[in-house]
Amino acid sequence: MKIKEGDVVGRKSYNNDILFVISRIIKINTKKFAILKGVSIRIEADAPLEDLELIDKRVVNENIKEINNKLSERVKNYHKRVNGKVYTGKILHLDGDKRYSEKSLRYYNKIGLNAVVKNIPESKQPNNIRMLLEKYKPDILIITGHDSMLKNGTNFYNIYNYRNSKYFVSSVREARKWQYSLEKLSIFAGACQSFFEAIMEAGANFASSPGRILIDFIDPIIIAEKIATTEENKFVTTTDIIKEIKEGSKGVGGIGAMGKKKLIIN
């Protein structure tokens, strides 16, 4: 069958270890390549079309079901812990993936958080961040999407060895021009295999990925939720975050952030 944009595929050379959606197909000289985005993890990659294999719809549906179950389980557990509505600061969440943007917004709404979610491609985030900050004046900023190392396992400290880390770094810098205080504006930025040190140096409170590993699509949401639902006089530490992240300290690190919860009505 002819492979086209929007198809879910695996890479034969990697034994179909990750499910990808074909974002677009490009032609270089006479060879066609697909730009790929992870279905359940925040990775972007490319591959020649001949290396791709269509994934059975049942497998795709199981993967999507697993994602939805993770969110549903968190919603259920959240309502077990909290009796009433949580009044928090505002979350502004920028996501380069439209599907993840929609799922994130539904999750925030289900647990009653004050969140604005915008689907903006990673490369356009730095140019839009200041306008969005001025408009929504958030207390928590999430900047994410897809990323990966071009030469995996090498050139860890070369920003040009990462697909989108340079955009996350630029966005964080722009955000810190708007609000310098790490206490007043809590920032998470990054995706799979992102340049953790550069993002932190730019001014983030938390970032991915210290171990240059793959992270779940849900990880940035967990961080936003944790900061938002922690009392404003308490400090959210890296330990508080990583115990809820699938890959722990290899997936997310940081210096911590002040909680933003104002009040709970029982």
Largest sheet: 6 strands, mixed
Separation, N- and C-terminal Cα atoms: 57 Å
Helix content: 25-40%
Q: According to CATH, what is the class of the largest domain?
A: Alpha Beta
Would you identify the CATH architecture of the largest domain? Answer: 3-Layer(aba) Sandwich
Q: Report the total helices.
A: 7
Describe this structure in words.
There is one protein chain. The chain has helices at 57-81, 98-110, 125-136, 165-178, 196-202, 219-228, 238-242; strands at 8-11, 20-28, 31-38, 44-48, 52-54, 86-87, 91-95, 115-119, 140-144, 186-189, 206-207, 235-236, 253-254, 257-258, 263-264. With 266 residues, the chain is an alpha/beta fold. It has 2 domains: 8-55; 67-264, Response regulator (Rossmann fold, 3-Layer(aba) Sandwich).
Question: What does the secondary structure layout of this molecule look like, with pairings?
Answer:
Elements: E1 8-11, E2 20-28, E3 31-38, E4 44-48, E5 52-54, H1 57-81, E6 86-87, E7 91-95, H2 98-110, E8 115-119, H3 125-136, E9 140-144, H4 165-178, E10 186-189, H5 196-202, E11 206-207, H6 219-228, E12 235-236, H7 238-242, E13 253-254, E14 257-258, E15 263-264
Parallel strand pairs: 7-8, 7-9, 9-10, 10-11
Antiparallel strand pairs: 1-2, 1-5, 2-3, 3-4, 6-15, 11-13, 12-14
